[in-house]
């Protein structure tokens, strides 16, 4: 598995799903390259997507509960959109 979800990437090995944040290098000889950082490891796809939602919520600029709920719903739609695109491409 190797699925891009916004600035994040989901990969897997035979035991787990790995979520990493993709970041573009800004300085040095590798400027412009994209590297994976901040790895988390999950036993299920559900757990990996929950981690993505949690990261998005923690980064939210919301100042009210209503804004936070709107952000959360937006993030859920983004993930569903990526999942639908991925499933459609595989058919």
SSE topology:
Blueprint: E1 2-5, E2 8-12, E3 17-24, E4 34-42, H1 45-58, H2 65-90
Helix pairs in contact: 1-2
Report what the structure shows.
This protein has 91 residues and is of the alpha+beta class. The chain has one domain (2-90). 44% of the residues lie in helices and 29% in strands. It has a four-stranded antiparallel sheet with strand order 1-2-3-4. It starts with a strand and ends with a helix.
Shape: globular
Number of domains: 1
Helix content: 40-55%
Question: On the 0-100 scale, what is the average pLDDT?
Answer: 86
Task: For the largest sheet, list the strands in their spatial order.
Answer: 1-2-3-4
**Could you give the order of the helices and strands?**
EEEEHH
State the low-pLDDT regions, or none.
Answer: none
Outline the biggest β-sheet. Answer: 4 strands, antiparallel
Cα distance spanning the termini: 16 Å
- Gyration radius, to the nearest Å? 15 Å
Number of strands: 4
DSSP helical segment count: 2
Helix/strand class: alpha+beta
SS strand fraction: 25-35%
Give a brief description.
With 91 residues, the protein is α+β, with helices and mostly antiparallel strands. Helix content is 44%, strand content 29%. Strands 1-2-3-4 form a 4-stranded antiparallel β-sheet.
Task: List the keywords.
single chain, 91 residues, alpha+beta, 4-stranded antiparallel β-sheet, globular
């Amino acid at each position: 598995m190797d699925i891009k979800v916004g600035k994040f990437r989901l990969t897997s090995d035979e035991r787990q799903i790995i979520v990493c944040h993709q970041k573009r290098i800004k300085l040095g000889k590798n400027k412009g390259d994209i590297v994976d950082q901040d790895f988390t490891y999950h036993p299920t796809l559900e757990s990996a997507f929950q981690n993505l939602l949690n990261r998005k919520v923690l980064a939210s600029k919301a100042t009210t509960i209503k804004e936070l709920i709107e952000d959360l719903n937006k993030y859920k739609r983004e993930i569903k959109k990526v999942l639908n695109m991925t499933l459609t491409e595989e058919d």
